[in-house]
Amino acid sequence: MSAPSSTASPIFAAALGDDVTGFDGARDLLRAWSRGIRPDPDLTVSEWADRHRWLSSRASAEPGRYRTARTPYMREIMDALSPVSPVQRVVFMKAAQVGATEAGNCFIGFVMHHARVVLRRQLRRSQMLEFFQRLPPCLIGMEACAGAHYWARELAKFGHEVRLMQPSYVKGYVKRGKTDAADAEAICEAVSRPSMRFVPVKSENTQALLMTHKAREFLVRQQTQIVNAMRAHLGEFGIVVPKGIHNVERLILDCEQADLPAPARKALSLLADQLIDTQKKIADLTTDIRADARVNEDAQRLQI
After folding, report:
1. Which end of the chain offers a freer environment for a tag, N or C, measured as fewer CB atoms within 10 Å?
2. How many structural domains comprise the chain?
3. For residues 123-151, b (16+ Cβ closer than 10 Å) or e, as one string?
């Protein structure tokens, strides 16, 4: 048995009992516990980078511990970004390839290391706008899913910076099972990454035009379904029409001329009417898309 330690914390001893030091490894346990409750030291950005940052073999020609001594001219710049520095504004004028990106990465890592959860709250849809309206302007990260562009536009009206990300990019930051809280934590982590790719927020006009394209795509799929249904039904009566949308008129003509039972003729007639109506809607939306393409500068560049 090892000798009892005389450095036991009163709080720790009270929690585990009076005989907390009377076993093997007691000193190691107390030492580790003391390190765990010790406040983080006040480090500058360069000191934090030298102590905590490691470079991978994929991203660096010199993998291993980061060393500010390799770029000593960056130390003063990084330290000016530290909370303990009285500097209020940093203007960095530089040539290419002098370490500015790495200095930025060190600063981001420093901020993330010292970040703390300020607020953790679950909101209903009806509470969203009121809640963010009361907050000072901040960075908001969201997955680019259904309704995200609407919320991004509304939150931006309050002065917030909204960044949308593909859900597949956020998935890698989920630490445990898929829950709303875990997803929110992953989004918070992903939005701060300097290498993250963001989805541009669509305006109402852009989303309206996108809806036009999506509606036309839906009607085209519906047209194909109707044609396939009519061909299949006529095939049951020995009438075969070649595949292809260009044979639609022939398909409708065969329906009208075929010697079919009354119930079959009625059903095919309804399908034919629906097909004609769908084609008119497709033509109408196509006209709108072409009209927009003639006045849209981006669309004009794509057609050159």
Report:
1. C
2. 4
3. eeeeeeeeebeeeeeeebbbbbeeebbeb
Give me 199's structure tokens: 């989805």
pLDDT bracket for residue 5 (50, 70, 90): very low
170 shares its domain with 146: yes
What range defines the domain where residue 13 resides?
A: 1-38
Is 130 inside a domain boundary? no
Amino acid (1-letter code) at residue 162: V
Strands (DSSP E) contained in 157-294 are: 161-165
Q: Which of 242, 227, 238 is nearest to 260 (CA)?
A: 238
User: Rounded CA gap, 137 and 73, in Å?
Assistant: 34
**Is residue 174 situated within a structural domain?**
yes
What is the per-residue pLDDT across 137-190, written as a single tens digit (0 to 9) for each? 989 999 998 889 999 999 999 999 999 999 988 888 887 777 888 888 889 888
Closest CA to 139 of 111, 173, 99: 111
Any domain includes 12: yes
> In the beta sheet, which residues pair with residue 65?
54
Its pTM stands at 0.59
Side-chain-side CA neighbours of residue 144 (13 Å) = 14
